[in-house]
Specification:
By secondary structure, the chain is of the alpha/beta class. Helices cover about 30% and strands about 30% of the residues. The protein has one domain: UDP-N-acetylmuramoyl-L-alanine:D-glutamate ligase (3-Layer(aba) Sandwich). The protein contains eight helices and 14 strands. A nine-stranded mixed sheet has the order 5-4-1-8-9-10-11-12-13, with helices on both faces. A five-stranded mixed sheet has the order 7-6-2-3-14. Strand 12 and strand 13 form a beta hairpin.
């Protein structure tokens, strides 16, 4: 069985209008959706000693994601307030809490026991890219970060480099992926929302259309695609097959509120004590 560990980026996604919070964050979501795709997964990161931290731990446990590398520290868990614009998620406010605390013991030892390790630009661990790729295959989500220095630092070490290109002309997104493979990435993915996705290898590109869905919330759809695709590529599936499966999984994520799991009450939002949500 393919094994993947993801690191650091965790939050509780807070929907004030709906009065619910969900476990989330790119690294957390990728661990969940890679597990659903058939991999053995673990999450390594830091949560607080609050209801939000407990929600993250219980949500991971229900999905079968190992929490052996989760460290609980005094303080608040990270949070993100989510709004919507025609179904598309909008990040309104963020609190990092203890999520950026130093990970005791480091990540190299845990990563060495897995087939792949996944980070996002929100993990702020890009300085470990070379070391992590020496002990495991590295997946890195650049999201909408277009900093050339970050690309040069990380892409040479990537098995899978992922980019969110829904806000870019198609040619610009593909050029970003080409830069990544030219720097040494084995695969480069550009997700484009309703326009589908493109995957570039060293000598060929593949495209997949977005699967049909009923749009409720796009939060986590890109993470779903990355986690599912990563498992498919590691298992040796053909790129078209792996991308089709990823597109179908992403479509399912779009049909619900929150990336995965059961929502908790708004009182689990760090620093919030009122149980009365705002209504549209």
């Amino acid at each position: 069985m393919i094994s993947i560990v993801t690191a650091r980026d965790n939050v509780v996604d807070c929907y004030l209008d709906e009065g619910q919070v969900f476990a989330g964050g790119n690294a957390l979501n990728v661990a969940v959706f890679a597990r659903r795709a058939g991999a053995r997964t673990a999450y390594a990161g830091t949560v607080g000693t609050d209801d939000a931290g407990a929600l993250i731990l219980s949500s991971l446990a229900r999905e079968g994601v190992s929490t052996d590398y989760v460290q609980v520290r005094p303080g608040s868990t990270a949070y993100c307030v989510i709004g919507h614009n025609n179904g598309d998620r909008v990040f309104q406010d963020v609190g990092l809490g203890v999520s950026r605390a130093c990970f005791e013991g480091g990540l190299l030892s845990p990563a060495s026991g897995f087939d792949a390790v996944h980070l996002s630009e929100s993990s702020s661990l890009e300085e470990l890219a070379a070391d992590l790729s020496a002990v495991s295959r590295l997946s890195f989500d650049f999201s909408t970060n277009r900093d050339a220095g970050l690309l040069r630092m990380v892409a040479p070490h990537c098995f899978l480099a992922s980019f969110s290109g829904g806000d870019l002309p198609a040619a610009d997104g593909i050029e970003r992926a080409r830069q990544a493979t030219a720097l040494g990435a084995t695969w480069a993915l550009v997700t484009r929302g309703a326009a589908g996705a493109v995957l570039l290898g060293t000598d060929r590109s593949y495209q997949v259309a977005a699967a049909e869905t009923t749009l409720v919330d796009t939060l986590g759809a890109g993470d779903t695609f990355i986690g599912t695709l990563l498992v498919g590529l590691l298992e040796g599936r053909t790129p078209p097959e792996a991308m089709t499966t990823a597109a179908e999984a992403s479509a399912l994520t779009c049909r619900r509120l929150g990336a995965f799991g059961n929502g908790g009450p708004l009182t689990a939002m760090p620093g919030r004590h009122s149980t009365t949500p705002r209504r549209r």
